[in-house]
Design brief:
- Helices cover 5% and strands 35% of the residues.
- It has two helices and 33 strands.
- The chain is globular and about 50 Å long.
- The protein starts with a strand and ends with a strand.
């Protein structure tokens, strides 16, 4: 993947999708609210970027790869209804405020490995055509997975659910993995039992 030359932030976000070319937005500190609602977005690399104001991408289409690895969200992160047409990478991201991915559609892997969610999190009614990966993810606030569908499996390896967690109506096609996961004041088996699994299940 080639990183595109620099330019203003909004100019970069309005670039057409180019195969093999990603907008290099790594390590920025963004102090203004960012509204990407309903926009068609190119390959984006926000690795290590700090968002100090809300980022709202309701109904946005990420046409290529979307990297938010090691990003810090200090305000609202709203990706509800967004379409990720390739992998969505939020590995080791830090969400310090409300995070919502309600009704998002993810065509590739939805990776939140090592991410920390400090506030309420909504991963409900999502459609994940690949795996939903939550390896060593930390949910410190309440989280909802209600009615989400994962066709590539659910990977909750050493995941920590520190507050109220709702998986009612969730369906997983493929491997369902909860090995090493913990849940506040309850057994993780109770949580896993709410998931409709159409494949092998490990607890």
């Amino acid at each position: 993947m080639v990183l595109a030359p620099s330019g203003s932030l909004m100019e970069r976000l309005r670039q057409p999708f180019r195969m093999g070319v990603a907008e290099d937005l790594r390590g920025l500190t963004i102090n203004d609210a960012l509204d990407l609602s309903d926009q068609q977005l190119p390959n984006l690399d926000f690795t290590g970027t700090v968002f100090n104001k809300p980022i709202v991408a309701r109904g946005a289409t990420f046409q290529g790869l979307a990297w938010f690895n090691d990003a810090t969200f200090n305000a609202l992160a709203d990706f509800s209804g967004a379409k990720f047409q390739n992998d969505a990478n939020f590995k080791a991201a830090r969400f310090n405020s409300l995070a919502t991915f309600s009704t998002a559609e993810l065509s590739g892997v939805a990776c939140f490995d090592g991410a920390i969610f400090d506030d309420a999190t909504f991963l409900d009614r999502m459609l994940c055509w690949g795996s939903l990966s939550l390896d060593c993810t930390r949910f410190r606030g309440p989280v909802s997975f209600q009615d989400s569908e994962c066709f590539g499996g659910l990977w909750c390896n050493d995941t920590v659910f520190g507050a109220r967690t709702d998986m009612q109506g969730m369906e997983v096609h493929g491997r369902t993995w909860f090995v090493g996961s913990t849940m506040a004041n309850e057994r993780v088996g109770r949580l896993a039992s709410a998931v409709g699994s159409y494949g092998y299940r490990w607890l």
